[in-house]
Design goal:
The chain is an all-alpha fold and 134 residues long. Helix 1 crosses helix 3, helix 1 runs antiparallel to helix 5 and helix 2 crosses helix 3. The two termini are 29 Å apart.
Length: 134
């Protein structure tokens, strides 16, 4: 699908770290089986995250409701800082997409090494490039 968001590393990290944080807040010791269940549910629910601000929080809410191990009230602790965390998630997602694009382009021999060297060597010299230069 054209609107699907791939490589949401920041969202995946947020979901797992938030669940671990909430488990520690509520003094819940997660068994190995519960941890494996969390991994399985996160594998499924993280794919449903849209590439829009705040979608990670909604996915977290649905994951917690599916788990029935950690109280939903814990979301109140996260909602106050979610706006700031959303910025970090977006940055990590962007970096992940950039790295994946470069790796795929290099593996498919689609990178023009001459242009790459010219851009890297002139970095910081306030040069601007148009699409015609590349």
């Amino acid at each position: 699908p054209t609107g699907y968001s791939f490589n949401l590393d920041g969202t995946t990290i947020y979901l797992s770290m938030s669940i671990i944080f909430l488990a520690q807040v509520f003094h819940i010791d997660l068994s190995t089986g519960q941890q494996l269940t969390i991994i399985g549910i996160l594998l499924i629910t993280s794919k449903g995250a849209a590439g829009v601000t705040g979608s990670g929080f909604i996915v977290l809410a649905s994951t917690l409701s599916a788990l029935k191990v950690i109280p939903m009230e814990g979301l109140a602790l996260l909602i106050g800082v979610d706006r700031f965390m959303s910025e970090g998630r977006a940055l990590v997602n962007f970096i992940g997409n950039t790295v994946a694009t470069v790796v795929i382009a290099k593996s498919e021999k689609m990178v023009d090494e001459a242009v790459y060297k010219r851009v890297v060597e002139n970095r910081g010299k306030n040069n601007s490039y148009s699409i015609n230069d590349i």
